[in-house]
Amino acid sequence: MLAHLLIKNYALIDHLELTPDPQLNIITGETGAGKSIMLGAIGLLLGSRADTKVLYNPAGKCIIEGTFDLSGYFIEHLFDEEELDFTTTCLIRREISPTGKSRAFINDTPVNLESLRRIAGQLMDIHSQHDTLLLGSNEFQLQIVDTYAQNEEILRHYHADFQAYRKANQVYNRLIAEAAQMRKEFDYNQFLYDELEKAKLQADEQEQLEQELMILENATDVRERLQLATEYLDNPEQSVIVFLKNAVSSLNAISKFAPQYEQLRERAQSVYIELKDLAGEISDEQDNVEIDDTRAEEIRERLNLFYHLQQKHQVKTLRELLAIQEELETKVSRVLNLDEDINKAKAAADKAQAKLQKSAEKLSHSRKAVMASVEKQVKTYLLELGMPNAALSIQHTIIEPSESGIDDVDFLFSANKGIKPQQLKNVASGGEFSRLMMVIKYILASKRKLPTIVFDEIDTGVSGEIAIKMGQMMREISKSHQVISITHLHQIATQGTAHYFVYKDNSSEKTVSKIRKLTFEERVNEIAQMIGGSKPSEAILQNAREMLQAQSGVKQTNLF
C-alpha cells in the first residue's frame, strides 16, 4: 500500500505530503482545488509522461516520491526480472528538471519508463473518468475477463509464444520475399560469377603482368643497357673492376706497414667483391631478357580482360574483383539452397504456430470458463445498486491469433426491462456507467493482489441510496486493499476511515494547492457542507455527526 506521498513543485502544488490510511481514504474539496492535480502527480509515479509545463516554479525541479509497503504481496519476481533490489519498503521517485529531462528511480536505482510502469502497475490501480469511457472498449473488456480469470501467468506464456511465432513467421516471410527477388536476379548473377570464375583471377597477378609487359615492350633497349653496364664493370681490358683489382693489389702491398692501410685494403676488397657480384647479376638479367612478341600479346590480352572486368564492376583492383566474385558465389549458392532454407523456416514457423495455438486455446478456455460468472455477479450487484432490470451479456467470438489471444469479447448491456442488450457505448448513461464500473471494480478487487486502488469520482451521476451502497462497496474493498476515493458525495465521504481536504491557499502571491487530514469535527463540518452548502444548519450538522458516528461505531460486515 501507499505509505507516504511527497509532491514538490508540481502544477499548483509547491510542497505536499500525505500519509494515507491503510483502509478507505476520502479526498474532498471544491472543483479546481487540486484533487485531479494530485492524481496527475501519482500518475507520474506509474509512468505517465510529463514535460516542463507541470513545474510550479519553472526554475526548480519537480519531485514526486511514493513510499510503498509491500508486506504480504508476492511480487519479488518482478524486481528480479528487472534486476532491482527488493525490500518490503519500496521507494519510487520521479524527477523532472527545468530543461524537461525526466528521470525515474526504484529503490534509488535508475529505471526506464517501461520498467517503472511494470513495477508501479502492480502497486496501484487508478480508476479515472477516462476508464469509464474505456469500458466501451472491447480491449478493456477483455482485460476485465482476464483479471477475473486471474490469467496473468497464462497470458505471460501466451505472449512469449506469440512473439516466438511472430519472429519465426517473419523469418519465413522474409525468406520467401528474398527468394522471389533473388530468383529474378539469379541468371544475371550466375553469368557474372561464371565470367569472373573463368578468368581465374589472382590477387597480385595484374601488377606482375604489367611489370613483365613493360620489360617485353622495351626488351631491345633493356638488353643494350644491361650489356653496356656489364662492359663498364667487367671488361677484361679496361673496366671498373680491373682498376679496382689493381687498387686492392697496391693496398695489399702496404697493408702490413700500418693498421689504417689494412683497413683501406679490406674496404677496397669488399667493394671489389660486391662489384664482381653486381656485374654477374647484370649479365644474368641480360641473358633473361628476351624479345618475345607472342608473350607480350598474351599479356596484353590478359590485362585487357582485367581492365574490362574492372570497368564493368566499377573497381580498380583484382582484389576487389575477387571480393565481388565471392559475393556472387554466395548469392548464387544461396539461391540454389533456398528451398532447403525455406523449408526449415516453414517448419520452424509451423512448430511455433502449433505451440501458439495450444497456448491460445488454453487462454480462451480460461476466459470462457468465467464469462457466465462475470455476467451473474454483475447482475447481482447492479440489483443492489438500484438497477433491478439490468443485464450484462458477454458476446464471444474466435478470431485470428493476435497480441491478446484468439478471443474477441463484447459486453452487451441493458439497464431496462424488455430492452435487448446492446453494446455499452450505445445504451449506458453516465450514472449507469458509473455503477457498472463500480461493480466491476468491486468484483475484480478480490481477484487481484493490488495494494492500492484509487477511485477518481467513480460516483459520477449517482446519489441517494445508490451512493450509500457504492460507499459501502468501497469500505468492503478497503478491508483487503488500501482505497483512495475522490468524491463529491457525502454518502461516500462518511464511509472513510480517513478524510483529507484539498483546498487552494491564496495567502501568498501565487495560489497553492494544499491538503490536510480532517479531525472528526472538521469532517462533521465538511460532510454538512457537502449536504447543505457553505452554511449548513444545526440540524444538518447533527445529521452529519450521526452519520460519521454510525460508520465509526458500527463494525462493518460482508456487504451483500
From TrEMBL:
Q: Which CDD domains match?
A: ABC_RecN (cd03241)
Query: Pfam families, from UniProt?
Result: SMC_N
SUPFAM superfamilies reported in the protein's UniProt record: P-loop containing nucleoside triphosphate hydrolases (SSF52540)
Q: Which residues form the RecF/RecN/SMC N-terminal domain?
A: 2-506
**Mind telling me which NCBIfam families this protein's record contains?**
recN
Job of this protein: May be involved in recombinational repair of damaged DNA.
UniProt name for this protein = DNA repair protein RecN
Q: Which organism is it from?
A: Runella salmonicolor
| Encoding gene, per UniProt annotation | recN
